[in-house]
Design brief:
The chain is an alpha+beta fold and about 550 residues long. It has 13 helices and 20 strands. Helix 2 packs antiparallel against helix 7, helix 2 crosses helix 8 and helix 7 packs across helix 8. It is globular and about 80 Å long.
Length: about 550
C-alpha cells in the first residue's frame, strides 16, 4: 500500500512541479554568483536536470541551445565513465563541441550526478560561456581559426572534482591555459554552486517521497511531454515544405520539412560542406535549432523535456556545416545555428501565418571587445550579443530590439554595467533609422549602439551574418536591412565590417553596432493610413519612404 500511495497522481504532479522549481533555483544561483557580465547580465548560460540515463527532464530559463544540448553532455559522461568511477560529489567538465553537449569551446559544461543513498537517480548540469579558454586569440574566438586546436583548451569529458573535492592538478591545468583565470575560477564556482543547489533539492525530494517515486515521476513527465507534442502535431498542416536562402558569401542554404501524423522530419541534407574556418556547428547543435522551432509551433506554453521531441527527426549530411566533424573549428557555430533555425522557419512560415513571423535579423552579432582595461590595467574581455528586429506577422508589426529566436530569456548588458565593468563608454543606444522591412505589418527595428573606447590598447572581434542578404519578407512584405559594424576613428576615418579579428582600437574610437530590421509582412500599400502616419510621427520611417513605398499622400483624408 505504501508503494501504491507514493505513486498517486497528486504526488507525481508535485514532484514534476518541484523539478521545474529546482531548475529555476539553479538558474537564479548561477545568475547571482557568476563573475562575468556575459553570465550575470546577459544570462548566456543554461541549466538542466536529466534522468539517470541522461534524458532531459527539466530545464530552467536560459539559452535554448545550451539547455537543449546538456543531455548530450550527460550521456557523454555516462558513455565514458563506468558506474564504478562515478561517485557522489564528482563533478565533470566538457567543452569539445563535436561531442559532450557544448556548442563551442567557450561554452563549458559542468555535470554532477545526484545520488539518493547509494543510488544514482538523476544528473544536474550547467553550461555557461566563459570569456576566454585560451587558444590563438583573446576571447578564444576568431574568424581566422581553421581547427579546434586554435580555439582553446579542450576538456574531453574530464573529472574536475572527486568525491566533492577539486582535483588540484586538473584545476591548475585549466587555469594555466586561460587569459582571465580569476574570472574563469569565479564562473566555475558559480556553476558548482548552481548544481549543488539542484543536487540538494532533488535529494530532499527523494528523502520525502522515495527515490523510486522520483524516478517514476520523471518517467511520467517525459511521457507527458511526448503526449502534448503528438497532440499538437495533429493540428499542423501535413505535407512537405521547402525553403532556400543564401549566406552572405553566396552559398545556398536549403531546408525541407515533412510533417505527418506521427513525425516532424527536418531534412538539412544538400547544404554546404564543412567550412574550412569556424563557420560550423555539430549535429547536436543543429538538432537543438530544429527543436526550438518545433517547440515554438507545437506547445510553447508547456515545459520542454526529452519526451517533447520524440516526434522530431533530423537528417544531415556528414561533414557538412550543420554536422561538422572533429577537428573542425566551431567558434562561430552560433551564426550557423541561427541560420539553420531561420531556414526551417522560412519553410514553414507561409503555412503557419498565425504562429510564425517574417524573417528576423538572424545573427547573434556576437561582439567581443577587450584589451588593457583603462581603470584596472589588467587584460579584460567583454562579450555581448546584440539586439535586433523581428519580422512582421499576420495582424501585427514585428518587435523591435529583441534577441534572436536562439537566445531565449537573455538580456542586453546594461549601459551602467558596460561602463563600470568593461572599460567602454556607451554614447548611444537607440532604434536604428535604417530603411527596410516595410509591409502591411512592418518588421521591427534593429538598434544602433555606440561603444566609445577608453584605452589605446583595445580591439574588437566580430562576425555578423546577414550583412549582405537581409531578413526575408513574407506575403509581399519587403526584406529587412542588414547587420554591420561601423568603426569611427578618432582621426575622422570610417570603416565598415561584417567580420574582423582583433581589429586594433585606440582611445576615442567609436564602435557603432547597427543591426537589421526584420522583414515586413504583406503589401506595404495595404498598410492602414493611420499606421503610416503613426510611424512618421514616431520616427520609424521618413516621409520619402511613406510616399514611395507606402503610397502615403499627406493631402488625403
Amino acid at each position: 500500500m505504501k508503494g501504491k500511495a507514493s505513486f498517486d497522481p497528486v504526488t507525481i504532479e508535485i514532484i514534476q512541479s518541484s523539478l521545474d522549481a529546482i531548475s529555476s533555483e539553479m538558474f537564479a544561483t548561477m545568475r547571482k554568483t557568476a563573475m562575468s557580465s556575459i553570465i550575470y547580465e546577459v544570462l548566456d548560460f543554461g541549466v538542466a536536470i536529466t534522468d539517470r540515463e541522461g534524458r532531459l527532464a527539466s530545464s530552467g530559463a536560459g539559452i535554448p541551445a545550451f539547455v537543449g544540448m546538456l543531455d548530450y553532455g550527460v550521456r557523454a559522461i555516462i558513455e565514458k565513465f563506468s558506474a564504478g568511477d562515478i561517485h557522489p560529489g564528482d563533478i565533470f567538465a566538457a567543452n569539445i563541441p563535436h561531442r559532450g553537449g557544448v556548442s563551442h569551446m567557450n561554452d563549458v559544461a559542468l555535470i554532477l550526478p545526484v545520488f539518493a543513498a547509494e543510488e544514482l537517480i538523476a544528473w544536474v548540469a550547467n553550461k555557461a560561456h566563459w570569456a576566454d579558454v585560451g587558444g590563438m586569440a583573446p576571447s578564444s574566438i576568431s574568424p581566422n581559426a581553421t581547427e579546434v586546436f586554435q580555439e582553446g583548451l579542450q576538456l574531453p569529458e574530464i573529472k574536475l572534482f572527486e568525491r566533492g573535492k577539486p582535483i588540484p592538478s586538473v584545476m591548475d591545468i585549466v587555469m594555466a591555459n586561460i587569459r582571465m583565470p580569476e574570472t574563469a575560477r569565479g564562473d566555475l564556482w558559480a556553476g558548482v554552486a548552481s548544481m549543488k543547489a539542484g543536487e540538494r533539492r532533488i535529494q530532499e525530494l527523494a528523502r520525502k517521497y522515495g527515490a523510486s517515486t522520483v524516478t517514476h515521476a520523471i518517467e511520467r513527465f517525459l511521457d507527458y511531454g511526448e503526449t502534448i507534442s503528438r497532440q499538437a502535431l495533429k493540428t499542423l498542416p501535413k505535407g512537405t515544405f521547402e525553403a532556400q536562402d543564401q549566406l552572405d558569401d553566396g552559398r545556398l542554404l536549403r531546408a525541407r520539412v515533412t510533417i505527418t501524423e506521427e513525425e516532424f522530419i527536418v531534412d538539412m541534407r544538400g547544404n554546404p560542406a564543412q567550412d574550412t574556418g569556424p563557420f560550423n556547428c555539430s549535429f547536436a547543435s543543429t538538432e537543438v535549432d530544429a527543436k526550438v522551432l518545433f517547440k515554438a509551433i507545437t506547445s510553447p506554453q508547456t515545459p520542454a523535456n526529452a519526451g517533447s521531441f520524440r516526434p522530431l527527426k533530423l537528417l544531415c549530411d556528414e561533414r557538412s556545416m550543420f554536422n561538422a566533424e572533429y577537428p573542425a573549428a566551431m567558434g562561430l557555430y552560433y551564426e550557423v545555428g541561427i541560420r539553420a533555425l531561420d531556414i526551417i522557419w522560412k519553410a514553414l512560415a507561409p503555412h503557419l501565418p498565425d504562429r510564425l513571423t517574417a524573417g528576423h535579423y538572424a545573427s547573434i552579432c556576437g561582439t567581443f571587445i577587450g584589451g588593457t582595461h583603462p581603470d584596472s590595467g589588467k587584460f579584460h574581455v567583454s562579450i555581448e550579443p546584440q539586439l535586433g528586429g523581428w519580422g512582421g506577422a499576420q495582424g501585427q508589426d514585428g518587435d523591435s530590439a529583441q534577441y534572436t529566436a536562439s537566445h531565449g530569456e537573455t538580456f542586453n548588458c546594461a549601459v551602467e554595467v558596460n561602463e563600470a565593468r568593461n572599460g567602454v563608454r556607451i554614447d548611444r543606444l537607440e532604434l536604428s533609422d535604417e530603411p527596410g522591412g516595410e509591409g502591411e505589418f512592418r518588421g521591427g527595428k534593429g538598434i544602433r549602439l555606440d561603444y566609445r573606447i577608453r584605452s589605446d590598447d583595445f580591439w574588437i572581434t566580430a562576425m555578423y551574418s546577414r550583412s549582405k542578404v537581409p531578413p526575408w519578407g513574407l506575403s509581399g512584405g519587403r526584406d529587412g536591412s542588414v547587420n554591420y559594424v561601423h568603426v569611427l576613428r578618432s582621426d575622422g576615418r570610417e570603416e565598415k565590417y561584417s567580420s574582423c579579428a582583433k581589429l586594433p582600437l585606440k582611445r576615442g574610437d567609436v564602435v557603432r553596432i547597427v543591426t537589421a530590421n526584420g522583414g515586413g509582412y504583406g503589401d506595404p500599400r495595404k498598410r492602414l493610413r493611420e499606421r503610416v502616419l503613426a510611424d512618421l510621427e514616431d520616427g520609424y520611417i521618413t516621409r520619402a519612404v511613406a510616399e514611395e513605398i507606402y503610397g502615403f499622400d499627406a493631402g488625403t483624408t
